[in-house]
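R.M. (postdoc): so does anyone remember the format we settled on? I'll just put the structure tokens first.
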């Protein structure tokens, strides 16, 4: 098992990629701290992990705030004895709209969750990872952080920030034995999908259009992203850091 005897915090684990990651990480031997603002979703993920024979604990927190991330790390230490992996996965989306139709408050919320949140998470995780002698930070960025489009300036700004955050932290944390990488998925049908599709008359047609732009012919699944995050969190990626890994079926090629 690739995460045997490891402890992982996963934010945004109440659904979608985070839930898939919690289940996969636990199946690979990790004890998982399931973090989400949605108490019911987080508890459902924890129950699924435990039903499969894994170990998990729920933390209900807002990762856009420092104390939410600190509570997650504290739970890892108190419940499981330490921390080896911090996956800053929580994020929010916005409908595709021109800049003139985006309110400043929407921009601020996107930056708070998608950029400030991972920064706060890495900051909170650092002391615990250092006590272990090293570890891994994984950040959920996006293809939108790597490739521009005309109607997503606020969302892309937030995800572009995570791309540079990954590179900067990799250089800062590397001498401490801590690797920092991100996963950059193409669009995936998760809880955020209806928000992304709000500007389209027919979301199903939009999904088909998105898939046509992917050389492998489909959108990402939560499991696709979870498997990539598992690789980056595990010793299989022991010499990989500072990488923003596209999980996009070739869309960025």
């Amino acid at each position: 098992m690739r995460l045997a005897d490891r402890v992982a915090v996963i934010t945004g684990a109440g659904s979608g990629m985070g839930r898939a990651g919690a289940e996969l990480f636990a199946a690979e031997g990790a004890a998982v701290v399931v973090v989400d603002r949605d108490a019911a979703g987080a508890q459902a993920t924890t129950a699924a992990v435990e039903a499969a024979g894994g170990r998990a604990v729920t933390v209900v927190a807002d990762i856009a705030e420092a104390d939410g991330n600190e509570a997650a790390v504290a739970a890892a230490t108190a419940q499981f004895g330490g921390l080896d992996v911090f996956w800053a996965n929580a994020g929010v989306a916005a409908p595709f709209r021109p800049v003139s139709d985006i309110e400043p408050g929407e921009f601020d919320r996107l930056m708070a969750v998608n950029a400030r949140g991972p920064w706060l998470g890495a900051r909170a995780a650092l002391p615990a990872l250092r006590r272990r002698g090293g570890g891994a930070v994984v950040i959920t960025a996006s293809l939108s952080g790597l490739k521009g489009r005309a109607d997503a300036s606020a969302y892309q700004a937030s995800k572009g920030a995570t791309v540079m955050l990954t590179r900067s932290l990799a250089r800062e944390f590397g001498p401490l034995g801590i690797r920092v990488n991100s996963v950059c998925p193409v669009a995936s049908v998760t809880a955020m999908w209806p928000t992304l599709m709000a500007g389209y008359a027919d979301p199903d047609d939009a999904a088909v259009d998105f898939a046509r732009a992917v050389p492998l012919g489909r959108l990402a699944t939560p499991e696709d992203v979870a498997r990539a995050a598992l690789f980056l969190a595990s010793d299989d990626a022991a010499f990989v850091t500072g990488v923003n890994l596209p999980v996009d079926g070739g869309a960025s090629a």
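R.M.: ...and that's the designed sequence above, right after the tokens. Also worth knowing: DSSP finds eight helices and seven strands in the chain. The first strand starts at residue 7 and ends at 11.
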